[in-house]
Amino acid sequence: MAENIIEIADLTKKYGSFTAVDQLNLTIRKGDIFGLLGPNGAGKSTTILMMLGLTEPTSGSVKVCGIDSTSNPIEVKRRVGYLPEDVGFYSNLNGLENLMFTARLNRIPPEEAEQKAEQLLIRVGLSDAGKKKTGKYSRGMLQRLGLADVLIKNPEVIILDEPTLGIDPKGVREFLELIVSLSKEEGLTVLFSSHDLHQVQQVCDRVGLFVKGKLIAEGDIQTLSKKLFANSPYIIETGIYIASDFSENKYTTDWLKEVLKPVEGIIAVNMKNDIFNIESSRDSSVEIAKAIVESGAGLNYLNKKEYGLDDIYYRYFEGGDSHE
Amino acid sequence: MNNKIMHPFWVIVHKEISDHIRSWRFIILVALIALTCLGSMYTALTNISKAVKPDDPEGAFFFLKLFTISDGSLPSFFIFISFLGPLLGISLGFDAVNSEHNKGTLSRVLSQPIHRDYLLNAKFVAAMIVISIMFFALGFLVMGVGLFSIGIPPTAEEFLRIVFFILLSIFYVAFWLNLSILFSVQFRQPATSALAGIAVWLFFSVFYGMIVNLISKAIAPPEMASQHQIFNYEAIRLTLMRIMPNQLFSDATTTLLMPSVRSLGPLTMEQVYGTIPGPLPLGQSILLVWSQVTGLIAATILCFVLSYVSFMRREIRSR
User: Fold this and answer.
1) Within a domain: B1
2) Mutation site, B5, B14, B112, interface A, largest A CB count within 10 A
């Protein structure tokens, strides 16, 4: 039985009348890579700040490693490495010096710190740039240095707030691989916040969906999709060939419903941009294709989709424009 | 605990000092202040022979003249310090907190296991150390050059007076330093906070005096007013002037460097009657300026408390 390393209970944060985090309950187990997924302004960063005692909750409690973050932030910060969104370094110092500064703030003896800093620079692929001023680093290099900076204090938990922002796709992949391998090697618990579901899907064991300050769903990706799409786990997209001389399109949603009547398990049929979306409780693509062809229509497109995070994301975040 | 491991507070102080010393801003300021020192030294040395009169009660304090006399073309050393000190304080503190925030280092540093006030205190202490070293070096340099050129060593009392003058200058710069740290906590843009600091400085050094003059003209007693009325009027005018840190500083330095100054407030004829014109001993001079020094320190602490309060409960977001 894995122990809980982060426990959040009834956490609320209000800015005036605006509620940034609303009655949040969340537990994260030791050794997990947990993805905090949500659109911008969902309250992810605010939650993270509260975990580190960098801002005070309006009500509720946060415990990291069993220590209350609001009343005893120093002890929490000793155990938690935090990579802020858009991290910055002292540009007049080089990479190694920046790491050494952090190490000294954590009271790591100088010899040990230097050894560790050099190891970490190699680990994150900056061994050549260690003596270069961080003012000359690229965005991706800064982010990797940030990861080294987080790891130098031997944390139990690392919290990464939008760590892949502004890095090119190749850099993102390398960075994510680095996080996964580090977490496996060192047995770290990782909390990874992002608005990019593909990245979260790539690395995270468990995901929490965060919208408007509320955690609306939590679990691994399979259970998430099962939970959220209990009734219609499959979606089949079909396109019907429409001859150009038809003055009126007879292939309407109602027509398709009629055609698909013999097929079992059809839940709903919708049309969007001339493509039919058929929601089904089972994988009925073969039967659907057969039914359409037998009806005499020209089937020119058929795509079977399983629900991924994409759909979870859109289903829940589509209304996301309404908040700032 | 192992002695080799520095306390995190001193780690930050260490870094801040090395940042200051290596920054162009500091080099420019040192050059500026060193130049003005040279200038005022030069005028003092060329005029010192004229300054000594046989019946001068301050004749015994020949050495202090180095810091106070001028021929009118260039201000004396202590006036230079009262003018440039604020600039030094403001320029060392105006971007203390907001530049860390803008660089994105603030949230990284504060997510380390340190108390939040370490950052604020360390920035203050580091700047104070730099300023103290600089002022003592300058003061002693002026003394050394003076010693070489006039050939009369300072007496122990003169030496102590100069040391107190340097300490006072450090307190004075500390006030401006804290004021600018306060602005750096309050304003997100370093340029805004620098401007705010310079605005306060200009207000006090140029406009406040004018305003006090206006007010005092308006409330001036008639010519035939009783002595008591005139005394009260003078007292009000001085109180108004002493809200200015500049005034506190110049009052205090004048007393320390010119031992013949025996009161900073108005004196009645009865009080002066029968006194022998002579210098005050050091202890008495210090006693006289004690309220000024306390006022300066109080203003410094007030600024510090304000920045502390607003910084401690602030939410630390990345930029």
Assistant:
1) no
2) B112
